[in-house]
User: Fold these one by one.
Assistant:
Number 1:
Amino acid sequence: MSNFLLRPRVCWITLITVLLSLMGCVPVSYTGWTGPQQRRIGTLRLLGDGLVHLNGRQATNGKTVYERDQLSTGAGSGALVEFAGGSIQLDENTDPWFEWKKNEHGQNCLYFHIEFGQVWVVNDRRLVCFDSPHSGGGIYSIVNIRVDRLATAITVFEGQVRVTRPASQLLRAREDVAVERNRIGPVRVLADRELQEVSRWRDNYPLDYRRRDDYGGEERPSGRDRRDRSAQRCDTYARTAIAQNEQNDRRGCGFHGARWSSDYNHHYQWCLAVPEQAARSETQEREIALGTQCREPDSTGDARRCDTYARTAIAQNEQNDRKGCGFHGARWSSDYNHHYQWCLAVPEQAARSETQEREDALRTQCHTIF
């Protein structure tokens, strides 16, 4: 029989297969976005002893998560997606998918879309946005988000969250709100005990990335043992951070911001919220800054140049505030000493470039964040 005569039969078989797939008779699993511009989101860490699925298939520790990938945690399982500048931790029975896109102000944002479940978001260097059936918004902080059939509950532990749907609402540290489809509920300020209760689910997942098999067949240490170990580790971290900041103040280095806080509880709670390696890196970053970026001016010329740089930086930040641009971070500080000491620690060309970066941002990128 010729190929010509076989073609109608092949076409009919193809058509029937497609129809059966649409009717659900032939199983078709979600395999994630396969387009040519797939971008990296972060690295997956498995928590707990249950199964975690990535695009419908059992996930493995250390797997790269890409744009349009979907994660699903089952009973007794959790996961952590680490990205540059932060992480998103998933509770059991949670189902987000991820993408990069611009928000309504034209800013690049790491979006996670969640239909059901609970996540803990830690980020300090990039804008993270969330989308649920009831709400959406931008996060630059530490926040817990819980989504069920009726509402999305948002609890801010540190920093701020701008809710943009169904209406605009700015939430600050310690504030909690439940958002329904057409209404934002009353904002509550939580006490320490209430905040601990919101985040208690995280005690079920030790952030050491080890599952039962990694303990040589032995049972994982109990929740109490893990909490005691974390408490001891984070007490050491917080005391070291305060000692480093005392050195910063004593030497007049001028470093400031959350990293250089003298608040023990701030450092302790942050340490509990992030992987152990992140806390180690933060301690090391402070040590490097004290060793390489804190110095007195070498000459009167340095002092004069950096005085001009600091005053210009403050003036640019005043323009940022006045125009409501929403730029934030160390570059947009209003602290004269911060800018002055930074200028002393870097080559002259770097300071010029920083001034120009602020000028360009004010001229071409001034859109409101919050």
Number 2:
Amino acid sequence: MTSVEDLDLAVLAAGVEAPAGRITPPGGRSDAGRLGPLAEWWRRVAPSRPDGPRRVQHRWVASAPAFAGAVQAEVTWFPFEAPSPVAEAYAWGAAAADDAADDGADLVLLSVPDAAAAATLAAHLLSLDAVEAMGWPARAGVDDETWVAEVASLRDGLRRVRHELEPGPLLAGLGSPAMAAGAGFLLQAGVRRTPVLLDGPGAAACAMLVYRVTRRVRGWWQVAQSSGSVLHDASVEKLMLEPLLRLGVHAEDGTASRLALAVLEAATSAPAAGAADTAATAAAVDTATSGAATSVGSPTLSPGTPVAPADPSNPRDAADAADAAAPADAAAPAASAAPAASAAPAASADPSSPAAPADPADPADSADPSGPRDAADPADAADAADAADAAAAGGDESAADRGDR
């Protein structure tokens, strides 16, 4: 078997493709919050199952989580049984991803059980020293003695891999079957187009390593939750993903990912939530616009259009008909000849006469909602940034990406 040092993950990643399409940038506040984008992500990664996952595999946990809520999907859990040699563990993880795809799994919940190796890998990839990575005892939630021991362990681990830049030698330096298996699983799952819900710091650390190899694989992932630790939060930020939950759960027994699965099911149970919000907003704007147009009297008429006779029983129509029939009204010719002129000078032959109110139907008195968007509109910048991010995720790696490795 090829040694892990000789593994060329860039070659193995050649088959990874980003999910089809791109996420629509938000056009404003949505009552559904992040449920709409989450449902849209699911429809991109699993177009054949738009109503949500039904066959879910939970890897790698010793048993079903103690605090997991009820979910609709059928969840099968798998223990971690990778061989000890790192190269064999990597191959075992990749084979597990193939098995999940061949078994028809709609989604995989991934937990990687090696906290010490995960901390070393994450701190190394983020270029953090041991103290920066652990945070102070109050942030880590431990006493001073425990904190000192964890910092010392992380410091020693960083020394073993400080000169390693390539993924293969880095995994060999870590010497962790769990990290090797996690990296192999995530990369092969991307090749097989299997969506993965990352559970805990271990899965996030493996994801960072694979993300350095190919940016396209990120589109197949979601992060279950943020544990609140420095390393986990920094890892998720590096992946440019938003956790579905922020529960501060430190146990990597799959609890967080099972709860996040329930959130995903809730989002996909109403797949048109985002569209409904958009339709409701458009309807409200149309109603407001039509109400404003009908509340100011006669609509603007094009030249040569006959004026309909007024209804004597309607005081508003009677007033409109009287205004239309008055030949001596100086304001109408003035407004017709010069739409941009103020209504006050046209109707103020008598200095003591009050100025006429502005006509909302006049193009000079109201902004045209259908006009072109201002070039400085921040929404344009957001659209451009989103398009650039989608291009980076869906296309070949940039020079900066290759330099990152």
Number 3:
Amino acid sequence: MNNLQHNKKSELEKSALKDCLEAIRRVSEAHKKLMHIQWSIPPQPEHFDHHIDLYYQWLETGNPLWLERGVYSSLTLQGGNVLELSCGDGFFCKNFYSIRSKHITACDFDPKAIETARLKNSAHNISFVLADIRNNMPAGQFENIIWDGAIEHFTLAEICNILEDIKNRLTGNGILSVHTIVERPEGKSLSHHEYEFKSKEDLYEVVKPFFRNVTVFETIYPSRHNLYLWASDSVLPFSDNCKFVLSNNQFEQESITLDSDINTFVEKIAAHKNTDKNKIVNMLIRKNKTLLEQLSQIHA
């Protein structure tokens, strides 16, 4: 590229960048206005339009907490059929789950939420359905059921009944993923919330009776204390048998006996590395196939 071409590209790039910055400013202002209308003028909506997060609040605060639920639920996806409960505006359904799922049935009891979801977050493999999961949860068998940012909208008795229906709709290896928040010291975050969990232990104790395996973890921000849960009768993400995880926890260190020559050799390496002899042997077994025959006589 000669200097003339380089200068021309530079000018075009500066002009395009200026246009982009102006577009970002205008879109951000529009979503700030939308947020004010929806949340400052009663009544407050039952769902949140996450394009407000994307185009306004994230730029304003730099806070990524709103994205976590999409990331953590995505870790459970198995490429099959998904049921999303209380889907709200459908943002996470489209932008986190649809690309890695065969089909998603996403439901909400709020007609306005379903209207917004169909308008802003449609995809070829998503069906947005108007349904109250307390008495009309969509039927079928699903590899994943996602209940993000909504469990707190139900009473404890309703939560338990819904969990029973969830269990009946999960396949044998199906996984439930949940996102919710911890109740603040001053009380509930929103008037719509029926039951906010007091701690990760509280959430665990409610869900554990329904599933063999339950994992609960938390993230804490100045403005919010998040809880995330995975539950299944099968394998959960990051457990020892999880197929997409490899960790040294899966390579158990054995108590072993070696023949004299190999034992001396391994002991020298262990001394040089300042580590346990058994760790060296397990490392050799994994890393050096040429030694497998010599080490085949190892026994506990």
